Amino acid sequence: MSGAGREEREGSRLNSTAAEDRKQSKRRVRWSKTRRRRFLEELALTCDVRRSAAIVEQTDSSARRLRAREPAFAQQWEQAFDAGRQRLEEELVARSLRQVPAAGGPGKAGMEMPADEDADGFDTALALKLLALRRARTRQDRATCSPAATQEELDAALFQRLVALGERLAGSRDAAEREAADNRRIVEAAASGGGRS
After folding, report:
1. How far apart (Å, rounded) are the C-alpha atoms in residues 121 and 51?
2. Cβ atoms of 80 and 86 closer than 8 Å
3. Helices 71-97 and 124-144: crossing angle, nearest 10°?
4. Residue 58 in contact with residue 29, Cβ under 8 Å?
5. Who's near 84: CB < 8 A, 6+ residues apart?
6. Please, what sign has the CA dihedral across residues 108, 114, 90, 99?
7. Predicted confidence (pLDDT) per residue in 151-177, tens digit
8. What is the share, in percent, of the chain residues with pLDDT greater than 70?
9. Alpha-carbon torsion 102, 108, 114, 120, what sign?
């Protein structure tokens, strides 16, 4: 057996193994109940979609597709974000109550602290901006979602539209009758004028 034939078979075997590895890596990992629960727990702790998805061996885009596809999961996602926002607010309050030195003032053990960032790397200014953005988005979402109308409100709106439609139809009928009368007069005038000539 020639060396070239052996190398060719060995090369094709390596290629098929590489292809199988690629196929396995492309297989989707399902969003089991356990993965969903763990993702939402992490999201509530961090408000970081990418990190939360990575914890359960998913991508952030996969998580967003699941949210778009399943309203119940989307609602749980929002609840997790709200919990994370609340945690962030509580942390800001706790830090202000501990009276962390102001920017530029002496920190723990006489160290200078950077502006807007505590000794442990917590960025207060960024936290406040994120909370403001989240609140603005929540207000915007609530403004676009009108509350459900009562049956009485629906009946009243429907009645108003029916009345308006009836008035339009009556107006159209009256206009059509006036036009027909005008046309008859023109025809009569033409006939009576034509008979005299």
Report:
1. 18
2. no
3. 140
4. yes
5. 43, 44, 45, 46, 47
6. positive
7. 787 777 777 877 777 777 777 777 778
8. 65
9. negative
pLDDT digits (tens, 9 = 90+) for 4-60: 566 555 555 555 555 555 454 455 678 999 999 999 999 998 888 999 999 999 999
Q: Which residue has tokens 């609140």?
A: 135
The residue type found at 7 is E
Strand partners, 117: 123
CB 119 within 8 A of CB 81: no
Ordered by start, the domain boundaries in the chain are 31-84, 100-145, 148-189
The two structure tokens encoding residue 117: 């960032």
How far apart are the C-alpha atoms of 107 and 104, rounded to whole Å?
8
Residues shown for the chain: 197
Residue 106's DSSP bridge partners are 112
How far apart, in whole angstroms, are the C-alpha atoms of residue 129 and residue 141?
Answer: 18
